[in-house]
Amino acid sequence: MIVWDLVVIGGGPAGLSAAFAAAGRGVRTLVVERAAHPRYKTCGGGLIGSSLTVAAGRIEVPAHDLVDRATFTLDGRRGFTRRHRAGPLVTMVRREEFDDRLRAAAVSAGAEVRERVAVRALEQTPEVVRLRLAGGETILARTVVGADGSSGVSARHVGVRYRQVDLGLELELPVSAEQQARWRHRLLLDWGPLPGSYAWVFPKGDRLTVGVIAGRGEGERTREYLRRFVDRLGLAGVQPVHDSGHLTRCRADDSPLRRGRVLVAGDAAGLLEPWTREGISYALRSGELAGGAVADGDLAGYERAVAERLVPSMLAGFRLLDVFARRPHVFHALMATPPGWRAFARFCRGRTDFAEMVGRAPVRAALALMNRLPSPRASLTVPSPDPRARASRPGS
After folding, report:
1. What is the C-alpha end-to-end distance of the chain, expressed in Å?
2. How many angstroms separate the CA atoms of 192 and 97, rounded?
3. Nearest CA among 322, 316, 76 for reference residue 195
4. Over 281-307, what HEC string results?
5. Of 130, 164, 144, nearest in space to 10 by CA
6. pLDDT tens digits for 256-272?
7. How far apart are CA 366 and CA 293, in angstroms?
8. Neighbours of 380 (CB within 10 A)
């Protein structure tokens, strides 16, 4: 029986990044994916600068919009729009296209991809990892990179633990030419009524991706937030192409990234930004780090690299989320200031990260001050719908 140098479980950005990095350095690599590309994936699909830096070296990014303007609202109120004149802030992609191009790049680098293959269990010996498939077949590998999501077999095998779990709900809405023109080059972020929640509109040509995210355990209130948000946008009567939901999970500080010969990357490792819940850049980067560690024969080096390059920004994101959950109105006001807008733009373009941002003395002082102030009760309740919101809805 063939023993692969590396088997990657999952054909998303994390897994395909690992495969590209390893196969490109001569590692005999197999990717197994339970679906078949191109396949729909619940995801906002906004690529920030750190994602583009990784992806642009492999593929031509299939952009459906280049966003240079952002509209901000506070639960439908106090809206304002800012434009970044020095270039796009976010590149909008459809995940079925983006992932399929990453698949083609991994194959071009030398990886083999097998689709419609589901892994049911992992077993390790000192020499190999045995992957048991749904059909009864067995695959052997010297090393495995698990990139099959936070509910996949690899996360369970490694024992990944989570500090934060959120519920995201998303609609893909086909829109008219008039609506396309209204939203072209512009995204909307709405700071929501539930602690830590927000909603978004991302333009993708003849579709809009509309979604909300909030802490798990608030399912009905999160669904109500989405309903009110879509109604405010004037899109309540539009039949969605996709209507989906998913849980996002951020790893606990001491959660493992490896068990023996099995590494986990991306969502399977709980690697994503806690405040924005942005995960594509973490998937691309952690997958690349995992594939590089396999090629180097230094699996522990993956753990060190994640701790050095990704964890600091996650810890900063937890700090920002903690304050944002209690004071969304303060964050909204800050976005209207020149320093706040510049910080947002620099983050989107990959010129800074949250660790660097939070490390600055003025930001540290501001966060410390907000932590000492009593939390306003209004930010912890769901307000009644504002009758003025429809008349002043963003995009009208």
Report:
1. 62
2. 30
3. 322
4. HHHHHHHHHHHHHHHHCCHHHHHHHHH
5. 144
6. 999 999 999 999 999 99
7. 39
8. 12
Cβ(324)–Cβ(74) under 8 Å? Answer: no
Q: What is the pLDDT of residues 340-350, one digit of tens each?
A: 899 999 999 99
Residues 6+ apart with CB under 8 A from 276: 317
Residue 384 has pLDDT above 50, yes or no: no
Between these two residues, 366 and 103, which has the higher pLDDT value?
103
138 forms bridges with which residues in the sheet? Answer: 132
The pair of structure tokens assigned to 346 is 């620099």
Does CATH place domain 3-62+94-161+252-312 in 2.40.50.100? Answer: no
Beta bridge partners of 140: 3, 130
Query: What are 259's two structure tokens?
Result: 């068990």
Residues 101-114 have pLDDT tens digits of 999 999 999 999 99
Q: Which of 91, 226, 218 is nearest to 170 (CA)?
A: 226
Residue 28 has pLDDT above 70, yes or no: yes
Which two structure tokens, joined as six digits, stand for 201? 């509109």
390: pLDDT strictly greater than 90: no
Per-residue pLDDT at 376: 58
Average pLDDT over residues 211-223: 94
Domain boundaries, the chain: 3-62+94-161+252-312
